[in-house]
Amino acid sequence: MAEAESEYAVEKHLIEQLSHMGYRFVRMGNHDDLLTNLREQICKVNRDKLVEAKGEASLSDSEFERVKNRLLNHTVYESAKILREKWILDLDNGESVYLEFLTDDYERNTYQVTHQVTMDKEHVEDVDQTNRYDVTILINGLPLVQIELKRPGVEINEAINQINRYRTKSFFGLFKFIQVFVVSNSVQTKYFANENDLDKRGGVRRILKSLVFYWTDENNKRINTLAEFASVFFTKNAITELLCDYFVVKESEPDLMVMRPYQIFAVKAALRRVLIEDMNGYVFHTTGSGKTLTSYKLASILRDSGKIEKVFFLIDRADLDEQTVDEYNSFEEGCVDNTENTRSLVSSLKDSSKTLIITTIQKMATALRSGKYDAVLDEYADRKCVFIIDECHRSQFGKMHASIKRRFRNANFIGFTGTPIFKQNKGSNDRTTADVFSVPNDPEAGTADSKACIHRYMIKEAIADGNVLPFSVEFMRSIAVENTGDDSIDSDRLDDADYCRRHNIDVGALYHDEKRIANISDDILEHLAQHTRPEGTDVYTAIFAIDKIKYLMAYYRRMKAHRLAWDPETNPDGFRIAAIFTFQANEELDDAGEDKYSRDELQECMDDYNAMFGTDFDVSNFDSYRKDISNRMKQKDLPQIDLLLVVNMFLTGFDSKPTNTLILDKDLKWHSLVQAYSRTNRVDKKTKRFGQIVTYRNIKKAQDDALALFSGDGNPDDYLLQSYDYYVAEYRKQVEALRNIAETPDDAGYLQSEDDQREYVVAFRRLMGTLATLKTFSRFDWEDLDVFMDEQTYTGYKSWYLEFYDRQKRDPKDNPVLADVDFEIELARTDRINVVYILHLLKDVDRADEEETAKAVDLILREIDRSDNERLRVKRGLMKEFVSKRFYELPPDADIETAYHDFERDSMQARIEAFATENGLDERMVGEVVQDYFANQKSLTDEALRQRLKGMGFGLLKLKSVTMKLSQFAKEMLELYTAEDN
């Protein structure tokens, strides 16, 4: 067997390939070399301007110093904005020039490749750890693309973890300008944007693996190998286009985003269709794949092309309107004119400066119907306009299309949908999406979908690429023979509508039987935590869709009687349950006309909601109620809703990463089914492994038909999880693999070599993931697994897994093999043992009985030891010291929580005093440094610390040493004393 090529060989071959593609190889040793090269390359790309302003394409020392002052010491986000600006440089001769650091003309830019650049504290003061990087792409002297390589066989996630480590330790100086990372083990290759290094609170951000993408060709065929990837991704034209046209510096976050290949290909196809072919078309990209970003880029490029008079973005409903406006404005602040009414829409038409308008189809329809706006509208009759239609499968646009087309005779129409209308799922108007977006003057127009659809990216590709999650579907039996009173009825076929019709069984009565509703309500509440709180700590949200308002209220009142109250005694799980529906007929929402009292019932739900959240909603401000529910379902810094009962609302157009479960007691089919399912499968944290569907109706055939239709007649099973029994079998196999490495948990503790430990970590991680999947099934029972490995033994193995994690986290340099292994630590947190939990246990101790107190304290100490809550593990020593010592000294009526916080404060002060004495520092000054760092992590710069130490009389070496120690001490204090208590 041929030996796998080394990492060095992979690197060498890539550099050779890039050199053949026109990149000039330059040898760079350190950051000073980068700066020297930057000076030369900036002069090249700005040659004409510099020659005109000063007679030569060069920069003096003072001029380059000003350039460095502009470029250095910024965040990643700020650097990305600087990269794309035209910056005024004041020259020594009194003239000034607009310098460009990146242009969209690849023939003007300079392209270089280097490798093994070393970043150390000697050359860049902020560097915490000396690191050497694999391959760096320099454009105009700036390191804009960083490539990190692993040898074949190594997980490329390790390269991502390595990059996250570099971002906190050494990606400083000019490396803040990195826009895109590429990681590869030669046979697998991915790319991703460099996220801003700081979050909203000033803390460190990590690259999310959910935002790491494969590259593909135009037909979504994945390009895996590094050589093939480089041949298309790194052409000068392609990489320049990616950085200039298909990269987003978000305004509101702030953050950076790079588009995925299918988004780029869709935009290019739409631009060709409008600007070159002058025809219509639609983009079929599956729900959840980022259509808003794709449509924004299309709209912004059309707007900036100078060839389009107005770009209209039409959407269907008010809630989509707000959501789209927020997303658009996050990409480019103020780019969207959110028309609140028809008059505002017409005003925007009059304003020549507003070339991008977002509005609803309904407002546009009103403007077209009202004769008083004809004069304004007629001005655009023959001008070049483009209409971009979101969720274009909806019937409203089909109805409006003809009237818009008549008024805007020279317009083009580009639709976006994840669920087009085909002949199989077309409605009463008998029109498909291809009919609406047919190609003019095409003899096959209206019949050939291949002509109208300009790009496809279907659910099968999105799941395979990891851009959306697969579905786990549980079909729950909910009708019993006893409901029919007929012993001759086959109980297994009561959820078959055709069978019930043949036997004259009123299936509607069975579905809406009071006892069935009570049983389902209890079943949902029994398993809700299992679905929405996987691994014990993460909280997700669920939607329960019911077929009619009348029965929604029956479910709601049953749940309200059992779990809705916020009293911990009646609601031990703390579930917050809410309901929403429209109280009057509203097309494609809820048909409440059947129930004249639905307004009062909605108010009942609102009154409960107000009591639960301290709000003040009633039916007169329904829209505010809807918005508040939307925010709480998305967990935007508000107490969340755990379960939302709906009829049709929130089943389409609602994007929420924290929503992971859809419960159904209604029939769905075709696009309605796929849209509803897709509320659950947005990629989020590791603990969200799939979208969970729990259905109390047999919609298996409707599900399979819909998934096949919207995935190009693919196999529906490709998008669904396997059965519970399948994962039990997987658990057995993975237990055997783990025991081959360490036969018992004790044996794991004797693994000496890091390679053996790594093998153990990977094997246990695989087992842990399978167990996490099993636990989401309603039928999960540890007894099914005990024959292979019971819970106690599993916990023993997990303890060593966490120990290996702790070791590499304490000092990555001492554990280089484990330093970048992907531990997926989120999946290891399976209990809720935290500081609050421990303090509650202490409150319940009866200290009047010394023997019982000793037993209780021993139990609590063991609880602390067995916790896998990472934040409590940080505080383990502190908590044990409090329980073992201070707790016994407290009077019987002491407030335990207050006593613990006093203990923490005393402990922190003692550590500050000891550190100050040990290093000859003023303890008050040390305390101020720690408190300032707690309040704002940005305050702990070396320069700020040196200013505080300036009057201490330290020599240069001593000053440097004490600065480093004080910085490390403050970080340790933050880690220890601000570890979360929940």
Task: Note the main attributes of this structure.
12% strand; Rossmann fold; 982 residues; alpha/beta; 6-stranded mixed β-sheet; 7-stranded parallel β-sheet; tt1808, chain A
Biggest sheet layout: 7 strands, parallel
Across the major sheet, the strand order is 17-18-16-19-20-15-21
Low-confidence stretches: 441-448, 585-596
CATH architecture of the largest domain: 3-Layer(aba) Sandwich
**How many individual helices?**
38
Q: State which percent range the strand residues make up.
A: 5-15%
What's the N-to-C terminus distance? 52 Å
CATH topology description of the largest domain: Rossmann fold
- The number of distinct β-strands equals 27
Question: Which shape, going by the Cα principal axes?
Answer: globular
The assigned structural class equals: alpha/beta
Q: Whole-number radius of gyration? A: 31 Å
Within CATH, the superfamily of the largest domain carries the name: P-loop containing nucleotide triphosphate hydrolases
Q: Average the pLDDT over all residues and give the rounded result.
A: 85
Number of domains: 5
Q: What is the name of the CATH class of the largest domain? A: Alpha Beta
Helix content: 40-55%
